[in-house]
Every structure is written in C-alpha cells, then in structure tokens.
UniProtKB/TrEMBL annotation:
The keyword Cell cycle does not apply. It is an enzyme of class 4 (lyase). Coiled coil: none annotated. GO terms for molecular function: deoxyribose-phosphate aldolase activity. GO terms for biological process: carbohydrate catabolic process; deoxyribonucleotide catabolic process. It comes from Pseudothermotoga lettingae (strain ATCC BAA-301 / DSM 14385 / NBRC 107922 / TMO). This is Deoxyribose-phosphate aldolase. Its EC number is 4.1.2.4. Gene3D superfamilies: Aldolase class I. The keyword Lyase applies.
Length: 232
C-alpha cells in the first residue's frame, strides 16, 4: 500500500492535531511550525490560537480544522449551528468542520433528532464549500448504534467524511470499528482519529480503505514513513 505514496502524498493523509487542554502557548507555536514544515493536510489546535495558525498557513495549501461542539457533542442543533456560522465568517483558511454528533441522542435511540442534526449542520457547511466531517465517537457506542448511525449518515450527501473519534473517548479506534463502518457507510470516506500512534497502524487502516487520519503523532508517523521510504 505504501508504495503508491510519495512523501508529500503521505503527509497529506494527516490532519495534525494538538488539542489536549493543558497545551501551552509555546507548544502551540512549535507544533504549528513543525506541522507546516512537514506539509500536512490540515492543522487542528486550540481554537483560541486560530488567528495565529491562520496567519502562519496563509501562503500554503494547508487547511485549518475546527471542532464543532467538541468533544462531547450534546449542545442543541441551534447552538452548533451558531458555532458553525461563527467559524464560517472567521476566515477562508478554515477549511474543515469536524462536528461531534449528539452522542446522548444516539444512545437514547432518538434517531429522528440525529437525522435532523446531521442534515441541518452538514448542509450549512456544504453551502459554503467546506469539508464536513461527522465525529461519531465509536468507543462510546455499541455495534448496533454504530450501524444505525452509519446508515443515517450514508443518506446525507453533504457529509464528506465520517470520523471515528475525538481522541477524548474512553478507548482508541479499533480495526473492528472501521470494518463495521465500511460495511454500512455506502462509500462515505472514513477519517480515523483516536489512538493513531504508529506507521503500522496507519498501514493497516489504509489497507481497510481509510482515507484520512487525525493524530497528535502525525509528525512522528511521517518521519517513520520517510525513513522507510528512503531505505527502499
């Protein structure tokens, strides 16, 4: 699988993330610089640092990711919509909206509410030609809940990616989670996030058909790929 990727193409598989709440400003500055150096697809940092990150990527093709109702997802549809509209007006360099689904509604089997949320929020994002990712937090859901949620998502044309987790869930994304998602998503692209730390993990997920990764270890994984790539 790796043979087909150039070093640049491999780097573009990653949304490089630094979202732990104890992150310092100096860590943010260094992280943004390193992520730009490695030419990742996009960067996700604490939202209060967006102005800094936007300025730094302004002359690159690197995008900025924002999380909507991150990481719990249980705000009202109206509140999530306000958040989306705020970031839409913030800067054109904000390219990706990673929306946390209302996990409480999913666990309550309130599928009518979930479907309405998916439709309203994704359509608002796509009206502005932005990337819409829905975070379903597989580690908090049963297999049946994952299946039903993926079936609903498969019917929403405005959703670009389904993202496995926030990175704040109780467990990492599993291969079983992705296998189950692939079966019921109707061809929707998958972004794996949550516990992605090694090149071997990335390879296995790519072999399963994953399109994109979110990781705080993106730079280390890219380094590992480059080292292997250049030895061949």
């Amino acid at each position: 699988m790796f043979i087909k990727f150039s070093e640049r193409d491999f780097a573009k598989l990653f949304d490089s993330t630094l979202l732990k709440p104890e992150t310092s400003w100096d860590e943010i500055l260094n992280f943004v610089d390193e992520s730009i150096k490695y030419d990742v697809r996009a960067i996700a940092i604490p939202w209060y640092a967006l102005t800094y990150a936007i300025k730094k990527v302004s002359t690159t093709d690197i995008g900025i990711v924002v999380g909507i109702d991150f990481p719990f997802g249980y705000s009202s549809i109206e509140r999530k919509l306000d958040e989306i509209k705020f970031y839409l007006s913030f800067s054109e360099k904000i390219t990706d909206f990673d929306v946390v689904v209302n996990i409480s509604a999913v666990r309550s089997n309130n599928w009518e509410y979930v479907q309405e949320e998916l439709r309203i929020l994704s359509q608002e994002i796509k009206k502005h030609d932005k990337i819409c990712k829905i975070i379903i937090e597989t580690s908090r859901l049963s297999d049946n809940e994952i299946v039903r949620l993926c079936q609903l998502i498969s019917n929403e044309s405005s959703i670009d990616y389904v993202k496995t987790g926030t990175g704040f869930g109780p467990a990492p994304t599993t291969y079983k989670d992705v296998q189950l998602m692939k079966k019921y998503l109707g061809g929707k692209k998958i972004k794996v996030s949550g516990g992605i730390k090694t090149l071997d993990q990335v390879k296995r997920f790519l072999d399963m058909g994953v399109s994109l990764f979110g990781s705080s270890a993106a730079i280390e994984i890219i380094d590992e790929f480059v080292e292997r790539h250049r030895r061949k």
